[in-house]
Design goal:
Length: about 45
Amino acid sequence: DPEIKKEFETSISLSKLTLPHPMVRVIIAEQLFRAWSIIHNHPYHRE
């Protein structure tokens, strides 16, 4: 709804798909952990 979008200054797009909120939480948590692991040289990101 364009009226609602006008009320918010920032929006985050994870995908062109519409995702359920619980899935978005998991995706964001995974991406934050990936970023943390890269910054701290954690073996999660290494092959």
